[in-house]
Amino acid sequence: MTTVEKEPAPGGRRQPHVVMAVASGILRDARVRKTALAVAEAGYRVTLLWGDHEGSAVVEGTLGPVRTIGLPVPYVLRDARTRREARRRAWRPAWPSYRDKGQVRTATVRLAAAAARVEGRGIESRAVLRARRSAHRARSALFPLQERAFARLWRHLDARSLRPERLSRWRQELANIADLEAAFTTWLWRLEPEILHIHDIHLLGAGVQAKRRLTSRGRPVTLVYDAHEYIPGITGVNPKAEAAYQAMELDLIGEIDAMITVSESIADALQQRYALAHRPTVVLNTPPRASAVTGEQVGGVREAAGVPDDVPLLVYSGVLGHQRNVGAVITALAELPGVHFACVCVPSAHHPAPRALAALATQLGVDDRVHLVDPVLPEAISGFLASADVGVHPMVSGLANHEMALPNKLFDYIFAGLPVVVSDVAEMRRFVTEHGVGATFDPGDPDDLARAVRDVLADSESFRRAVRSPELLDMYCWDEQARRLRELYSTLLEA
Questions:
Q1: In CATH terms, are 17-73+171-282 and 289-476 the same topology?
Q2: Per residue in 191-226, pLDDT tens?
Q3: Is the pLDDT of residue 379 over 90?
Q4: C-alpha 487: how far from its chain's center?
Q5: Helix (H) and strand (E) counts for the chain?
Q6: CATH superfamily to which 289-476 belongs
């Protein structure tokens, strides 16, 4: 790979080079795309590196004035560690119990076959069979005890791995970070940026390594960390990995020069947690002002779902996971006769998660009112959602990251002109109450969700007027977020 020569701007002034990096694809990552374009429009030369998890070769392209480079990330080290961990956790002694359920089933069938052959044979053969049966019963009875003992052992070992002295070795737990550093770090420093802008936690290590390399060569670089999540507040999926990410952020935070995040609450929490000299700049993930829908729409999600215009239609748009709690909406439909629900499934309506939702709808007898819809590009989402009646966001409560979040889908609904029904989590509750754009509900109570939907549908016109307020749209549009971003960038190279 050769070093990229810097091109002078029109009039002979050289544009400072900004290299942005994100570990995942950019096709549906509206925040990364908008950020790159906003910085380019502010007069910087921008190169955007992104992780191509399915590719085997570097892919170059453009996003308007932004140069894009997709880097293949095979995740060799992550997958090898996953296999080793699975083998360690699956190990069992052969005696006195069986190693696994497969051995139990095999021994049962073999014993049945031996019993079928013993008829007509002597007393000795029947005695051997009785002994084998007794041993099999004993070993089978020990099997669940052995499984519980090993489960307790792994819980103990996992708890030990969460001790602070062990978390300081976070790279041992996060083999995927080593894969990403191998793919990205050399590109980051060879592109010779003046500013490195790292999106999300996964490439912070690569950014720090590149900054150190450039600084050692007499080329100081400004490192910007764009924290898309509140890492200490993410819990519930993999405690070891979550704790390792927290240790990683704590270990590397001192290397950054500027920080961006996605809500005021998260900015306050980050400044307090890390004793930051400067509060992170808040850049919300919102649509551009021009995309706001202020009149009635036809087609879009309603047409894709096949729902008539006079039928109340709820919509959810986004990824589907346990913490998104979309099943609560389907459960609530039992208390909402005549109301339909369109789920715009990212990345596709044909993945396992949407199929599980379809099975739940069938089980509850509401499958005729649940519609799984494929997504559209982020730039088209406002117009696509606008023909629905209410936007729903049912994510689970009690997680710090959720309590402090203002998710992009909330603003997708607002800019589509839709009143919202959202979980009663702190930051979204504040937003909805302050601006009068919808209702909140207990995400653990589908009946309360149904109550909130009825309240909004009963007064939909006043909620729509609040949602379509020009002052509200001006306050939260991407144009305003881009202004904040430009103000931050104007200070980065002053020193």
A1: yes
A2: 999 999 999 999 999 999 999 999 999 999 999 999
A3: no
A4: 28
A5: 21, 14
A6: Glycogen Phosphorylase B; (3.40.50.2000)
| Side-chain half-sphere CA neighbours of 280 within 13 A | 29
Give the model's pLDDT for residue 315. Answer: 98
Residues 6+ apart with CB under 8 A from 114: 129, 132
Predicted TM-score (pTM) of this structure:
0.87
Residues 6 or more apart whose CB falls under 8 angstroms from that of 44 comprise 15, 16, 17, 18, 195, 489
**Strand bridging mode 17-22 / 195-199:** parallel
Token representation of residue 360: 């739940």
- The superfamily (CATH) of domain 17-73+171-282 is Glycogen Phosphorylase B; (3.40.50.2000)
Nearest-CA neighbor of 224 among 491, 402, 29? Answer: 491
Q: Which residues contact 359 (CB under 8 A, 6 or more apart)?
A: none
**How far apart are alpha carbons 226 and 24 in whole angstroms?**
14
Domain boundary assignment for the chain: 17-73+171-282, 91-161, 289-476
pLDDT value at position 4? 44
